[in-house]
Amino acid sequence: MVGSVAMLLAILGTYFATGTFDMIDAALAKPFMDLPPEQTLLLTSLAFWGFFFGFAFKVPSFPFHTWLPDAHTEAPTAGSVILAGVLLKLGAYGFLRIILPTYPSASNYWSMWIVALGAIAIVYGAFVCVAQD
Predict the structure, then answer these.
(1) DSSP per residue over 36-63, as a string?
(2) Mean local confidence (pLDDT), 66-78
Protein backbone atom coordinates (compact mmCIF):
# COMPACT_ATOMS: atom_id res chain seq x y z
CA MET A 1 0.00 0.00 0.00
CA VAL A 2 2.84 2.41 0.82
CA GLY A 3 4.46 1.80 -2.57
CA SER A 4 1.16 2.35 -4.36
CA VAL A 5 0.55 5.65 -2.56
CA ALA A 6 4.10 6.81 -3.35
CA MET A 7 3.62 5.92 -7.01
CA LEU A 8 0.22 7.65 -7.11
CA LEU A 9 1.78 10.85 -5.75
CA ALA A 10 4.59 10.61 -8.32
CA ILE A 11 2.07 10.11 -11.12
CA LEU A 12 0.06 13.12 -9.95
CA GLY A 13 3.23 15.23 -9.67
CA THR A 14 4.21 14.24 -13.20
CA TYR A 15 0.71 15.07 -14.43
CA PHE A 16 0.69 18.52 -12.82
CA ALA A 17 4.14 19.23 -14.29
CA THR A 18 3.33 18.06 -17.82
CA GLY A 19 -0.46 18.14 -18.15
CA THR A 20 -0.67 14.56 -19.42
CA PHE A 21 -0.97 11.05 -18.03
CA ASP A 22 0.74 9.64 -21.14
CA MET A 23 4.19 8.66 -19.90
CA ILE A 24 5.77 8.94 -23.35
CA ASP A 25 4.56 12.52 -23.69
CA ALA A 26 5.60 13.20 -20.09
CA ALA A 27 9.11 11.93 -20.80
CA LEU A 28 9.32 14.14 -23.88
CA ALA A 29 8.05 17.15 -21.88
CA LYS A 30 10.91 16.79 -19.34
CA PRO A 31 8.90 17.43 -16.15
CA PHE A 32 10.13 20.12 -13.75
CA MET A 33 13.06 21.10 -16.02
CA ASP A 34 11.82 24.68 -16.50
CA LEU A 35 12.30 25.47 -12.79
CA PRO A 36 15.46 26.72 -11.05
CA PRO A 37 18.10 23.96 -10.62
CA GLU A 38 17.60 23.41 -6.88
CA GLN A 39 13.82 23.06 -7.32
CA THR A 40 14.31 20.85 -10.36
CA LEU A 41 16.51 18.44 -8.41
CA LEU A 42 14.11 18.38 -5.46
CA LEU A 43 10.95 17.77 -7.49
CA THR A 44 12.48 15.29 -9.92
CA SER A 45 13.99 13.42 -6.97
CA LEU A 46 10.64 13.27 -5.17
CA ALA A 47 8.94 11.92 -8.28
CA PHE A 48 11.83 9.53 -8.94
CA TRP A 49 11.68 8.10 -5.42
CA GLY A 50 7.89 7.87 -5.56
CA PHE A 51 8.10 5.75 -8.70
CA PHE A 52 11.10 3.88 -7.29
CA PHE A 53 9.29 2.84 -4.10
CA GLY A 54 6.22 1.85 -6.06
CA PHE A 55 8.17 -0.34 -8.47
CA ALA A 56 10.52 -1.66 -5.76
CA PHE A 57 7.52 -3.03 -3.90
CA LYS A 58 6.22 -4.59 -7.12
CA VAL A 59 9.52 -6.26 -8.14
CA PRO A 60 10.03 -6.96 -5.01
CA SER A 61 13.54 -5.75 -4.31
CA PHE A 62 15.44 -5.47 -1.05
CA PRO A 63 14.28 -4.29 1.51
CA PHE A 64 10.68 -4.47 0.25
CA HIS A 65 10.71 -8.19 -0.52
CA THR A 66 9.17 -9.73 2.59
CA TRP A 67 5.59 -9.80 1.27
CA LEU A 68 6.31 -12.16 -1.64
CA PRO A 69 6.57 -15.57 0.13
CA ASP A 70 3.39 -14.88 2.10
CA ALA A 71 1.55 -13.79 -1.04
CA HIS A 72 2.52 -16.93 -2.96
CA THR A 73 1.49 -19.28 -0.14
CA GLU A 74 -1.83 -17.52 0.49
CA ALA A 75 -2.82 -17.01 -3.15
CA PRO A 76 -4.72 -19.63 -5.15
CA THR A 77 -2.72 -21.32 -7.90
CA ALA A 78 -4.02 -19.05 -10.66
CA GLY A 79 -3.31 -15.96 -8.56
CA SER A 80 0.20 -17.15 -7.83
CA VAL A 81 0.83 -17.72 -11.54
CA ILE A 82 -0.38 -14.22 -12.39
CA LEU A 83 1.68 -12.81 -9.53
CA ALA A 84 4.85 -14.52 -10.74
CA GLY A 85 4.19 -14.05 -14.43
CA VAL A 86 2.92 -10.50 -14.63
CA LEU A 87 3.18 -8.38 -11.50
CA LEU A 88 6.82 -9.11 -10.72
CA LYS A 89 7.88 -8.32 -14.29
CA LEU A 90 5.82 -5.14 -14.30
CA GLY A 91 8.04 -3.59 -11.63
CA ALA A 92 11.24 -4.15 -13.61
CA TYR A 93 9.54 -2.89 -16.77
CA GLY A 94 8.45 0.24 -14.92
CA PHE A 95 12.01 0.99 -13.86
CA LEU A 96 13.23 0.82 -17.44
CA ARG A 97 10.25 2.29 -19.28
CA ILE A 98 9.01 5.00 -16.92
CA ILE A 99 11.65 6.12 -14.42
CA LEU A 100 14.74 6.26 -16.64
CA PRO A 101 13.29 8.17 -19.62
CA THR A 102 11.05 10.48 -17.59
CA TYR A 103 13.55 11.46 -14.90
CA PRO A 104 17.04 10.95 -16.38
CA SER A 105 18.69 13.65 -14.24
CA ALA A 106 17.33 12.21 -10.98
CA SER A 107 18.22 8.69 -12.16
CA ASN A 108 21.76 9.82 -12.80
CA TYR A 109 22.00 11.75 -9.53
CA TRP A 110 20.76 8.85 -7.37
CA SER A 111 22.37 6.02 -9.35
CA MET A 112 25.16 5.38 -6.82
CA TRP A 113 22.60 4.96 -4.04
CA ILE A 114 20.65 2.50 -6.16
CA VAL A 115 23.85 0.57 -6.92
CA ALA A 116 24.68 0.53 -3.20
CA LEU A 117 21.20 -0.80 -2.42
CA GLY A 118 21.73 -3.54 -5.01
CA ALA A 119 25.12 -4.44 -3.54
CA ILE A 120 23.63 -4.61 -0.04
CA ALA A 121 20.87 -6.87 -1.38
CA ILE A 122 23.45 -9.22 -2.92
CA VAL A 123 25.50 -9.43 0.27
CA TYR A 124 22.38 -9.83 2.42
CA GLY A 125 21.11 -12.61 0.17
CA ALA A 126 24.46 -14.39 0.34
CA PHE A 127 24.53 -14.20 4.15
CA VAL A 128 20.96 -15.51 4.38
CA CYS A 129 21.85 -18.43 2.10
CA VAL A 130 24.91 -19.30 4.19
CA ALA A 131 22.92 -19.10 7.43
CA GLN A 132 20.11 -21.40 6.23
CA ASP A 133 20.14 -25.08 7.17
Answers:
(1) -HHHHHHHHHHHHHHHHHHHHHHTT-TT
(2) 74
